[in-house]
Structures are given as structure tokens and as C-alpha cells.
TrEMBL record:
The lineage of its organism: Bacteria, Pseudomonadati, Planctomycetota, Planctomycetia, Isosphaerales. It comes from the Bacteria. InterPro entries: HAD-like_sf, HAD-SF_hydro_IA, HAD_sf, PGP-like_dom2. Keywords: Hydrolase. GO terms for molecular function: hydrolase activity. This is HAD-superfamily hydrolase, subfamily IA, variant 3. The keyword RNA-binding does not apply. It comes from Isosphaera pallida (strain ATCC 43644 / DSM 9630 / IS1B).
Amino acid sequence: MTIEAVLFDFGNVLARFDYHRALDRLGAPRGASAPELLRRLDQGGFATVHADYECGRIDSRTLAAQFNAILGWSVPFEEFATAYQEIFELNPPVAQLARDLKAAGYLLGLGSNTGELHSSWFLKTYADLFIQFDHLILSHQIGVKKPHPAFYDHALRAMKVAPSACLFVDDLAENVQAARKQGLVAVHYEFNTTNLVEALAHLGVRVNR
């Protein structure tokens, strides 16, 4: 079937991100390094807390409170939120590819595991990019994360396309594999936009560049 829609991941596809930025920013004034904080957060179960946040089961202030509880800190919410949000840097070649695909007539979707703090920040900061997108599928809004099959099912219903007509681009192999199991055409992005464009062309997806 001909590709009609392209569903992009955000983090490490449309934009790069690095949690060390947030931890350095919060840790430096408190005499703690990012590697040390990552270890303490991991030992304290913050990954589970964060997964709950990205599924919309807890709110942003609860996330910050759990962060503080694990570390024994009392970082003000506004300081936490700013550091947590400002970890992204747009990936211009992929952002331009998305614009080119839209200009070529493809339906665009964003399919991201994310929480309210991140999504509100990047949708505002990169508004000129996301105005090109027809659908935003955000885990904290739909209550499920990739690679759960329900995430892809929700995206297909929202975009109103058949699985074989939807191309999915993600940087994590497990998300790509899960998408393929749901019938989507999926490409693993490994920080090489030239290879990505070639993979799309091989699938019959062509843009004027």
C-alpha cells in the first residue's frame, strides 16, 4: 500500500535531548554531579515515577515532589520545571524533512512518550514546526507509552490511516519493532538523516530537497 502518513517520534528524532543538562543545572548549586544524581535517582525508583508521569498517572508537581523526596532536596517547583524542560535541541535536518513531507502532501503525526512539562515546552518553542503537523499523539494524554500496542492503535485511529499506509520513525529499536508488529512501516533513525531519506525513498516516499 502507498504511504499516506508519517508518524515521527520527537526525542532524538525531531530534536535531541540530554537529561544531563537538567541534572547539571540542578546539581551544580547543590554540589552534586549528573552521574551521581542519575545513580541516586535510579536506586530510588525514579524511572517508575517518570513512567507514571509520561502515562499521565501523576501530575508535574507530583513528579517534582518525588524527585525531591528521592534526593532529600527541596528544589522549588519552578526551578525544577525550567531545568527539566530545557533539555532539547532541534535536529534541523529531520525537522526540515518533516516540512518537506508536509509540502509533498503527506499527513504528519507526532508520536511521543512525553509528559506535560516537556510537551508544553517543545510545542511552544518549536511552534513553527508543529503547525505543520496534523495530529499529536502524546503518551501523557492517551495514558499509554510506546512500545505498547495500544499507542500505535491510538495513532492509527487518530490519523485515520491503515497500518500499511503509515510510516513510523523512531530512534529506539524496541519501538520500531513494536510498530512493525502492529502492521506499520517503520524505520529506525540512527542520527543519520541521509540514510533516513534513502530509506524513505526505498519505500516510495519522496520529497523535493
